[in-house]
Design goal:
Bacterial polysaccharide co-polymerase-like; 12% strand; 12 helices; 58% helix; elongated; alpha+beta; two-stranded antiparallel sheet; single chain; 2 domains
Length: 313
């Protein structure tokens, strides 16, 4: 960039530096264009703020249930030390609470679990309302264009459901963002309930399978020490099955049930934010148009060249 010596101040001035006083004066001359731009863009943003269908967020706060399992695992440690191989074959392992929690969260995020929820709740028409004819009760698009279970899962997983883990406290926030605030709260609570039921059923099935194997081993051995150890494993599996049977909140305890948010408290659109953004964007577009559309002078210079502190001619 060339620089020139200012004769009055005896300072070197960058030839590409804009004279802001000139700039402000020029923009004031073209204020009508800027005002029109601000009004047009801000109006569009205001319309979006007031006419966009609001989206609400319902949150269910969950706490992993692991203390009972941890105490049970502690009582089994000595037994598994002597019968580790047999216990492994029976499907018995000593896992910490974190492993059980991660397994439950993986199930919650899984496609199979989510697709089952979407199917049983018949949510596909609600997820893709533009393709659904509510009056006729059928899809208005051809069979090839109808949303598939995989598409419904992706939309639900990316746009509607969020799972946030707090590593410090162990709390898990299950969030549902949806247009109907009552449905958002209902879905969040039902997902937590279904997850507990799913993990409870899996635990019962696993305990039953382990019991069946251990009972066969007990019948086939006559060694007193081995029979005693197997009996302790059987007692432990019966305890696990009993705990699953009597614990509706098997994987997660609901600390705070999801409640329908207030009607005037959506997460989107944020009206004030959109209005401010519209004004700022309209102002920026107006200034840019004022500079770009300015006619050139007799020497062929545009508005930017005429606003520099030092002319290069």
């Amino acid at each position: 960039m060339p620089s020139f010596l200012n004769a009055q101040s005896k300072e070197w001035v960058d030839a590409d530096e804009i004279d802001f006083r000139r700039l402000i004066a020029y923009l004031w001359q073209r204020r009508r264009l800027i005002i029109v731009s601000v009004a047009a863009v801000a109006s569009a943003f205001v319309a979006a703020a007031f006419f966009t269908r609001p989206v609400y967020r319902a949150t269910s706060v969950l706490l992993p249930v692991s203390s009972e399992r941890d105490s049970l695992s502690g009582s089994l440690s000595s037994t598994l030390g002597s019968l580790g191989g047999l216990a492994s074959i029976a499907g018995i392992n000593i896992g910490n609470g974190n492993a059980a929690t991660e397994e439950a969260l993986a199930v919650l995020r899984s496609r199979q679990f989510t697709e089952k929820f979407i199917h049983e709740k018949n949510l596909a028409p609600k997820l893709f309302p533009k393709k659904w004819d509510a009056a006729a009760g059928k899809w208005r698009v051809k069979a090839d264009d109808q949303p598939t279970p995989a598409q419904a899962f992706k939309y639900f997983d990316r746009k509607i459901r969020s799972i946030i883990e707090d590593r410090k406290t162990g709390l898990v926030s299950l969030q549902i963002d949806w247009r109907d605030r009552n449905e958002a709260a209902s879905w969040a609570n039902e997902l937590a309930q279904r997850l507990n039921a799913e993990m409870r059923d899996r635990a019962i099935a696993k305990a039953e399978a382990s019991l069946g194997f251990l009972e066969k081993e007990l019948a086939s051995t006559a060694v007193v020490e081995t029979r005693s150890s197997i009996n302790r494993l059987i007692e432990a599996q019966i305890g696990k099955r009993m705990m699953a049977d009597v614990s509706p909140e098997y994987a997660f305890r609901v600390v705070d049930r999801a409640m329908a948010p207030d009607e005037n408290d959506p997460i989107w659109p944020k009206k004030l934010l959109l209005i401010v953004a519209g004004i700022v964007l309209g102002l920026a577009i107006g200034v840019a148009l004022a500079l770009v559309t300015a006619p050139a002078d007799q020497d062929g210079r545009g508005a930017i060249d005429r606003l520099r502190k030092i002319r290069t001619d």
